[in-house]
Specification:
Blueprint (H helix, E strand, L loop, with lengths): L10 H12 L1 E3 H8 L3 H13 L3 E3 L4 E4 L1 H12 L1 H14 L6 H17 L1
Length: 116
């Protein structure tokens, strides 16, 4: 399998993950669904298009390619990368997290620490 060298903290992975589920969509819809701002989504889509993981049609609809699907599969199969990705995704929503969710995250972190 090809190593796609995607940073687990990058927004490209969040956009790819969304497109792997949805299949295809416009940048504005991706922004709304992921909670990422429009400019960030557009820049991520440009980089993903340049690397061949996403294609854009004549109607400005973006679709994930086979290499994009492979990158998402690689993310899901690599435990360490997946954990970094999830941590980064949670960090992007830190302002929206309430006290109960913080307590849950703290309990989870303690459980993980016990296991290692």
């Amino acid at each position: 399998m090809t190593n796609y060298n995607l940073d687990p903290k990058s927004t490209e992975l969040e956009v790819l993950e969304y497109l792997s589920v949805k299949g295809r969509d416009r940048a504005a819809n991706i922004s709304r669904a992921t909670g990422l701002n429009n400019k960030t989504v557009w820049q991520s889509l440009q980089r993903l298009t340049e690397t061949g993981m996403v294609v854009k049609d004549e109607f400005d609809v973006y679709s994930i390619t086979e290499s994009g699907k492979e990158a998402v599969a690689q993310l899901k199969s690599d435990k360490k990368m997946k954990m970094r990705y999830l941590a980064a995704k949670i960090a992007r929503h830190v302002d929206e997290i309430d006290e109960d969710e913080i307590d849950t995250l703290e309990k989870l972190e303690k459980e993980i620490r016990k296991e290692t």
